[in-house]
Amino acid sequence: MVRRRVRGVRAWFEVQTLTPAPPAPPSKWKLWFVNMSAVFPPVLLFNLTVLPDLGDLNALIRTLLLCLCVTALVTWILMPRLQRFFRKWLYPSLQALRGRHIRRAT
């Protein structure tokens, strides 16, 4: 953090920018990759294990069950973990801002 010393009433009227700007959003292809990594495995697993047992059900109900299960799994379990795992890759500017890209001698 950079400190500035301002004298007089000028400090009351200037906009203080002590917090850094938020990082730019990741590129679309990186978001696509993380989303595909989260969605494809559960859809494949559901199609191979659960859908053969539900063959007698209406196609609308089967699709609804697939969407409900996969969306819940992706939203609450897979995406938070994948976002944490790919954080440095998705937001490299944030890591550089924090100084974590520099190796520190022990």
Index terms:
106 residues; mainly alpha; 5 helices
Short characterization:
The chain has a domain at 26-91. 60% of the residues lie in helices and 0% in strands.
Give a structural overview:
This protein has five helices and no strands. The protein has 106 residues and is mostly helical. The chain has a domain at 26-91. Helix 2 crosses helix 3. It is elongated and about 80 Å long. The mean pLDDT is 82.
| Largest sheet descriptor | none
Rg from Cα:
23 Å
> What is the number of helical segments per DSSP (H or I, 4+ residues)?
5
Mean pLDDT: 82
Distance between the termini: 24 Å
InterPro entries: ABM_predict
Transmembrane segments: 31-51, 57-79
Keywords: Membrane, Transmembrane, Transmembrane helix
Spell out the blueprint of helices and strands.
Layout: H1 10-13, H2 28-49, H3 59-85, H4 87-90, H5 92-98
Helix pairs in contact: 2-3
